[in-house]
């Protein structure tokens, strides 16, 4: 193990201890909330982008989620309403229904409690590597999209999801300076993976295919 690796590991441990103890060895910890705002007022443009370290935009997130949940519910109810309902209104009073409802709430509250033991990536007290808070728009978009459960396996099964995949890939290619003009060579090839590991494997595979090493 190199000296640099050891120092990096020690720094990570120190940062995690800071998160755990809430004691940051910095003069910034002595600043009042007003002083911190004054120091960071040049970053005010970021205010609506995130849920916020103290969930300052919690009401906005809740409003957006409820709005798009209701929109999805309306879409389902409006899709061939002549077919009627498959779940009778009286189902919610059956003992097995009530038992399942209680069980799922218990399990979800248990999950929520366990998740709170995770590293608080969303908070400025955590300044370690690899992770950060998520964009509020991304949170809402992901939750809303999950309701539609698009299957991105083929164009026939998920035309909208495929269009989004190609559009996002094109945006990323342009952001990194690659050409997306299909009439020119080379042209960026756009494809989204399930995560960074798969992307690395696919990248190595493409490199080996195009230029053997």
Structural class category? mainly alpha
**First-to-last CA distance:** 28 Å
Radius of gyration: 24 Å
Q: Into which percent range does the helicity of residues fall?
A: 40-55%
Number of strands: 0
Oligomeric state, counting identical vs distinct chains: single chain
Order of helices and strands: HHHHHHH
Residue-averaged pLDDT, rounded?
Answer: 80
Number of helices: 7
Shape label: extended
Strand percentage, roughly? Answer: under 5%
Largest β-sheet summary: none
User: Could you name the ranges where pLDDT drops below 50 across 5 or more consecutive residues?
Assistant: 1-28
What is this entry, summarized?
With 213 residues, this protein is an all-alpha fold. Helices cover 53% and strands 0% of the residues.
Keywords, separated by commas or semicolons:
extended
Would you mind describing this structure in some detail?
The chain has helices spanning 3-21, 33-39, 58-78, 95-115, 136-148, 159-175, 196-210. The radius of gyration is 24 Å and the shape is extended. Residues 1-28 have low confidence and may be disordered. With 213 residues, it is mainly alpha-helical. It contains 7 helices and no strands. The chain has a domain at 151-213. Helices cover 53% and strands 0% of the residues.
Question: What's the arrangement of secondary structure elements?
Answer:
Blueprint: H1 3-21, H2 33-39, H3 58-78, H4 95-115, H5 136-148, H6 159-175, H7 196-210
Helix pairs in contact: 3-5
